[in-house]
Design goal:
single chain, 134 residues, alpha+beta, 3-stranded antiparallel beta sheet, two-stranded antiparallel ribbon, 5 strands, 17% strand, disordered N terminus
């Protein structure tokens, strides 16, 4: 009996997650976010060579490839972040800005560790993405 109860509860929770994610997706798209070119979707390759955006339940994220002289606040990712904050604020959705990471060359992005610091870029010009360091 508990197995079926648990299954029903899990199904209900997953259904709510899907609905919340779909609603947030539509809301953010009204603010020119999550476009088809730069949206990271598990079932297809990323189409944009310089910007990626995504949504995991209620967490929006963006990362961009920029020229060496580009200030963090002028990056495409910063533009997306500011737009997302405007969208969430206009809807009265409270976030956790203290958890937000902006303008960094290394850190966790949806569980993956991104390193675009000088030590990663200088030998081959590659940004590494993988499991977080221990």
């Amino acid at each position: 009996m508990l197995k079926y109860c648990l299954k029903d509860v899990v199904g209900l929770v997953l259904g709510l997650y899907f609905r919340v994610t779909a609603a947030r997706e539509q809301w953010l798209q009204q603010y020119q976010l999550l476009d088809e070119q730069s949206r990271l979707i598990a079932s297809r390759c990323l189409r944009s060579p310089c910007l990626l955006q995504g949504l995991v339940i209620d967490d929006f994220f963006a990362a961009s490839v920029e020229g060496k002289g580009t200030a963090n606040e002028e990056s495409q990712a910063a533009w997306c972040y500011k737009k997302s904050q405007k969208a969430y604020g206009s809807a009265g959705l409270l976030g956790s800005p203290e958890k937000d990471v902006t303008g960094k060359s290394r850190g966790k992005l949806v569980g993956a560790y991104v390193n675009s610091g000088p030590e990663a870029l200088s030998p081959r010009g590659l940004c590494t993405i993988g499991a977080p360091p221990t």
